[in-house]
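#onboarding

Welcome to the new folks! Below is a worked example of what a typical request in this channel looks like: someone posts a single protein sequence, and someone else replies with the predicted structure as tokens. Don't worry about understanding the tokens yet, we'll cover that in week two.

Example request:
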Amino acid sequence: MKVFTTKGLVDMDALTVRDVVELKGNHRKVATEFYLGDELVRRDVAVSILAPPGVNLSQGAINGE
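Example response:
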């Protein structure tokens, strides 16, 4: 299988793959990094928000009062 990288299409067998997971504050970041030798040639990132942001809502009375 070939992977599209900064060096063009490269055989998967020639790449080293590392997964990096970062948990900070209100998010979780998962990055998959592809290396050709010591050079980073591709990085895929997915970010998940762990809790919804606070929302300030107020309820009005009927008929706008």
